[in-house]
Design a protein that fits this description.
Number of strands of chain B: 7
Largest sheet of chain A: 10 strands, mixed
Number of domains of chain B: 1
Structural class of chain A: alpha/beta
CATH architecture of chain A: 3-Layer(aba) Sandwich
CATH superfamily of chain A: Thiolase/Chalcone synthase
Oligomer: heterodimer
Number of domains of chain A: 1
Shape of chain A: globular
Strand order of the largest sheet of chain A: 3-2-4-5-1-6-12-11-7-8
Strand content of chain B: 15-25%
Strand order of the largest sheet of chain B: 3-2-4-5-1-6-7
Helix content of chain A: 25-40%
Order of helices and strands of chain B: EHHEHHHEHEHEEHE
Mean pLDDT of chain A: 94
Low-confidence stretches of chain A: 1-5
Radius of gyration of chain B: 18 Å
Number of strands of chain A: 12
Low-confidence stretches of chain B: 248-252
CATH architecture of chain B: 3-Layer(aba) Sandwich
Distance between the termini of chain B: 30 Å
CATH class of chain B: Alpha Beta
Number of helices of chain A: 12
Chain lengths: ~400, ~250
Amino acid sequence: MMSTTHNLAGVIGKGMISTLGNTVAETRGALYQPVPRLPELPRRVATTLSLPVFEVADLAPDTGIPGGFSLQLLRHALREALDDAKLAGGDLAGKRVGVCMGTTVACQLNDIPFYATLRSGALPPARPLNNYIAGNPAEWIRRELGLNGPALTISNACSSGADAIGIGLLWIRQGLCDLVIAGGTDELNRVPLVGFNALGVCAPGPCRPFDADRAGLNLGEAAGVVILAPADAAAGDRAVCAVAGYGNSADAFHITQPDPEGHGLERAIRLSLDSAGMIQPGDIDFINAHGTGTPANDRVEAIVFHRLFGAAARFLSTKALTGHTLGAAGAIECILTLLMLEESTVPASMRFERLAADMPCGPLRSPCRLPAAQWALSTSLAFGGANSALVMRRR
Amino acid sequence: MPDLYLQNCRVFSRFTTPLSEDDLKAVRIACSLRRADRFTTLAAAAVKAPAGQAFPATLPPSTGLITVSAFGPHKTVFATLDDILDYPEDMILPVRFSHSVHNAAAAYLGTILAITGPTFAVTGFEAPLFAALELAQTLLHAAACPLVLLIGIEERGSLTQAAPALAPERFPTEPEEIVCAMLLSTEATAGSRRVIHERHPGTGTGTGTGTGTSQPAAAACTLGLSEAAIRQLAESDNTADLRLSPEHAADL
């Protein structure tokens, strides 16, 4: 995706909640713990399936908020991001503030009791329908904060959060917005849990991204929000890190399987490098991969990384720490990548032990100190063959 | 921001050219959509139905693709819930679940049309078509693609049918079933129409409280388009500027 200019979107605020922590500060500490938390059987989600998941436990459900737990996670991350950016309510007055959010669960009315009543021929209570409508993430933030810029909710399955931040970058570049609130949110929910299980992609134990014995993914839940500002404006100029490039390309191959040769992913990565100012693959210091732990996804990513970045490609997956958080994944992985750039250290790719015979290269086995790291890439792949890549830069 | 031009447009609705189930069956066969749901078939019909105005048979591979819908494939979501209600959790059909996501239709369209440009599924209730038009303009301005194919889809089902009874203040009438295909670029060509759309429908003050309880003023169904706007969109021989505003939705 070539852009007319190569200017950056400074990240002036970050907010994140996942099983790594309820705040960015907690997340920063947990990211480098040598022994990660293990996924557990669901507690809040009623299911008969014995599938380990990464469930946020320290946030009591608030029934007063529309959109279910996804919006509650989003509100939590949004407040932290606004605080981090030192933006109180009145500070947004008179500014052109855009909102771009990714989600999968919050844009489906999958309330089972509601539907059971509806299909019986009776009229269910209106509240689930009204909450579903009021809970569209981008529209909800725009209303809640009294904003007047564009509001866009993207539902590109597992790349939604990355796409939302990528579009936020374009809005900043094009002068459409003074500030952009971008990110993603998704709760752990019974419908995707049984759905992913039906697809045969859930691991019976903790996921092992890129490992020869990987057996699938663990679902998780999270929200991640970044506040973007033009890097040539005062606030953006003070930002330590920036979003620098974005690429998106479709496989046009299959509804659930990625193109086995990864041509769509390669296109997305190349477009993101071009968008970051025609930087070269060799400029990328490390990659935060999608790395779900499914055989197909991890193989494709390893093949593409090897083809583009060579046998010494430095990459990891953070999904062994957070689970696969679907529409939030691209957003929280952008934030985790920014933290790695800030810390100049990339953690080991957890639970990777042995390289599979069909993979040309493997992820980092141990933490890697990179004092001069300047450029990082985060990749996202999704249902339907959607591929996205974000380039982040430490300034 | 450069102007946006509508190169081609097809609108299927009861106000314009209606689509029959036979039309959808023909599209299903022509596009090999044996396993796809009706929502995806509607999306494919937007460009492939034999009825309606002419539409380019092929598009450049780098064309961008945006689908937009408020309710999305809600019938398929409910079919997945049927499985959960009627069978053990480990016996639900994977094909139903994989088609219940908003971007399944975009994935099929990309394959049918062999386009690999930037691809998005957009959803919203306040003014979804306008949000999608804004995204199209953003992608074109970024030179991410030479053209954007924007497909709007609202499917009729038990949820839309129940909406007026459940929330009459929000849905005075049942949301209409509609499918439209808009081929957009930033260059005027013979027969193209300049699209003038309200870019910032909100009138916010930036002083919101964030208490979490706000409600949309109204749920703009039918993609946020009024009957008049739908008819205007379908005027293939009209080259006058096409003015679209979210306020048009109020009279539907």
